[in-house]
Design brief:
Elements (H helix, E strand, L loop, with lengths): L4 H11 L12 E4 L2 E4 H4 L2 E4 L3 E5 L4 H21 L11 E6 L4 H5 L5 H8 L12 H5 L3 E5 L4 E6 L2 H5 L4 H25 L5 H8 L9 E4 L18 E4 L3 E3 L3 E5 L3 H9 L10 H12 L9 H5 L7 H4 L2 H24 L2 H16 L4 H8 L3 H16 L14 E6 L12 E2 L2 H14 L3 H14 L1 H4 L2 H13 L3 H13 L6 H19 L7 H17 L4 H10 L9 H13 L4 H10 L1
Parallel strand pairs: 4-5, 5-7
Antiparallel strand pairs: 1-2, 3-4, 3-13, 6-7, 8-9, 10-11, 11-12
Helix pairs in contact: 1-24, 3-8, 9-14, 10-14, 14-15, 15-16, 18-19, 18-21, 19-21, 21-22, 21-23, 22-23, 23-24, 24-25, 25-27, 26-27
């Protein structure tokens, strides 16, 4: 039954309330001269809390456990600071691929952006620990638009064949996925790549993984504030950078073994075993990272701008170690240890870092104190943690590791259970990847081939909505409207962009038929705003939907009810930066 204008206006009164919801035979795709058999690659599919997952990797148990741990990490960050929440209408999508043919289809299309996922090392990997070739074996790349983010995760056969423990593979790949997701959250909120200092802090998690390991101490190490001395056995246990299990998540704040090895390789490190040289070495270790003392400027720009020779000197390595420690501690403290006010200030500060030159006045505007005072407060918290540990009670940095989260059984995400992917799911997710890569023609071909070959795809509302959006992007309005109306009629598709697009196409068709200056009647107005009502029900926090809703009323003489005008005005007050919405509302008052 057709919705009457009065009924629709009544419905809008409810959907204007703020709300946010997420969505929850051989098959051959032929593109030019490239043929990819989806049966051969055995695509598998499932959903988790933050992702739709599509995998062509022939190790489903590994992929499922990786995603469970990634969800655990993401959920912990997201719960503790708003900066790490994905502000998009749809859950992210992640595509696991191998290098057994499917990588040529998804990556090597001739576009440099796409090749990044295959030809570059993962973000933040240190090449002195992991060879460049090994790093490429588990690389990842992601893109986003105003609707969603899509990630491509490569796991090569060589990586699967290597002699690496199952849990180590789970942890290092879960960290990789989680950090890409977290950095994408920051990029979406700031409009730019993450500030270098924040990327440095997050990438600290990529170091050692899997819990506690053995440290190889350097010769002559002896310090008044660290528990390691010359009496320590050659191999001593030290905390990992990152550890996670079903009970807790631990961040390693500093690793004496790694840091002292960097200093020992400095260009001016005294080498030798004679008495004089050993005395010089001991002097270095006695003064090693004695206390936090970086300035805000050093903190925001931790990479030295010295010459190559100077960068490798002890003094510069020491300064870099201290500022890197402080960078990590700042992020850890503001995300997991501070009060809610400080956590919100941290999110604002990150946004400020990208939008304007950051200095002490900006820091104080966000946090209420200057950086030196804040640092004192921060390290008082770390030292309080160390007070009960005799090994670190005298250390001004506090303990080398902190437990940032404790988990009970309810906190652990379920293991996503991969099942054979339906043709509609495979095509829809692959097409979204190509759309975000700027390859809309390929995306449309993927959907077209699936639609022609599969009755199941043609009857899947989510697939039909995706195909309708693709047709609209290619200017094929008639088929786009038909598909979007079919998807909308199912009442199963949670995709606000589909309903905004249907509303826009209905308006365009009316104006093309009756002239650009035509004023919509009540019935015509109802036809145009009906899809927007559905979009607002699905995501009442979308600024784009409110702008489009307001614009519709510039094409009619039907008076906008006061309660709706008041609600739009409230959105203007809530979003002062949205000039477009403000100007449209001024037109329809």
């Amino acid at each position: 039954m057709k919705t009457t204008p009065s009924v629709l206006f009544f419905l809008l009164a409810f959907v204007f309330a703020p709300m946010h919801a997420h969505a929850a035979g051989e098959e051959v795709i032929t593109l030019d001269t490239l043929t990819v058999s989806t049966k051969r690659h055995d695509w598998r599919y499932t959903r988790s809390e933050h992702f739709e997952i599509l995998s062509a990797v022939d190790y489903s148990k590994l992929v499922s456990r990786i995603m469970q741990r990634a969800e655990q990490i993401i959920g912990t960050f997201e719960k503790n600071n708003p900066l790490f929440r994905m502000q998009r209408e749809l859950p992210a999508k992640i595509i696991f691929i191998n290098d057994q043919g499917i990588d040529r289809y998804l990556v090597l299309t001739g576009k440099e952006d796409l090749q990044h996922a295959y030809d570059r090392s993962p973000m933040g990997v240190s090449m002195d620990r992991v060879s460049s070739e090994s790093a490429k074996q588990t690389s990842m790349r992601g893109f986003h638009d105003g609707e969603q983010a899509v990630f491509l995760k490569l796991i090569t056969q060589a990586y699967l064949d290597a002699d690496t423990s199952f849990e180590e593979r789970v942890t290092e790949n879960a960290i990789d996925i989680a950090l890409n997701h977290l950095l994408m959250c920051v990029k979406i909120q700031t409009g730019h790549d993450s500030p270098p200092w924040l990327a440095t802090a997050l990438n600290g998690l990529r170091g050692h993984s899997g819990g506690f390991g053995q440290a190889h101490l350097v010769d002559s190490f002896e310090s008044p504030i660290y528990k390691y001395t010359r009496s320590t056995p050659p191999h001593a246990y030290r905390p990992a950078w990152f550890s996670i299990d079903d009970h807790e998540m631990i961040f390693g704040r500093y690793c004496i073994s790694c840091e002292t090895n960097l200093l020992r390789n400095a260009s001016d490190y005294p080498r030798g075993t004679d008495k004089k040289t050993v005395a010089l070495q001991k002097k270095i270790w006695r003064n090693y990272a004695l206390a936090p003392n970086a300035s805000l400027g050093e903190f925001l720009e931790p990479r030295s701008r010295k010459t190559r020779h100077d960068r490798h000197a002890i003094a510069n390595i020491q300064a870099s170690l201290i500022t890197t420690r402080e960078t990590r501690d700042f992020m850890y403290y503001c995300t997991f240890m501070a009060d809610d006010k400080t956590r919100a200030a941290f999110a604002r500060f990150v946004v400020h870092t990208e939008k304007q030159q950051t200095n002490e006045s900006v820091f104080k505007e966000c946090f209420g104190v200057d950086y030196d005072a804040f640092r004192t407060r921060m390290y008082d918290s770390f030292k309080e943690i160390a007070r009960k540990d005799s090994d670190y009670s005298r250390n001004p940095w506090g303990p080398p590791d902190i437990v940032v989260a404790k988990f009970n059984r309810k906190d652990i995400p379920p293991v996503p259970k991969l099942r054979p992917s339906r043709r509609s799911e495979t095509a829809r997710i692959l097409s979204d990847w190509f759309v975000l890569c700027g390859e809309r023609d390929i995306a449309n071909q993927v959907l077209l081939k699936a639609s022609e070959a599969s009755t199941q795809a043609r009857n899947d509302p989510e697939f039909v909505a995706a195909f309708g959006l693709s047709e609209a992007a290619h200017g094929r309005k008639h088929s786009a409207v038909a598909m979007l109306e079919k998807a909308m009629a199912s009442k199963q598709v949670v995709r606000p962009e589909a309903w905004r697009t249907l509303s826009r196409l209905r308006l365009e068709n009316l104006l093309e038929l009756k002239g650009e200056k035509h004023r919509l009647t009540k019935d015509e107005l109802n036809t145009v705003i009906e899809p927007l009502a559905e979009a607002l029900k699905q995501n009442g926090a979308s600024q784009q939907t409110y702008v489009q809703f307001a614009q519709v009323w510039t094409h009619t003489d039907v008076k906008l009810p006061k309660e709706y005008l008041d609600m739009l005005a409230a959105r203007v007050r809530a979003w002062p930066e949205n000039e477009e919405l403000r100007k449209v509302i001024e037109k329809i008052r």
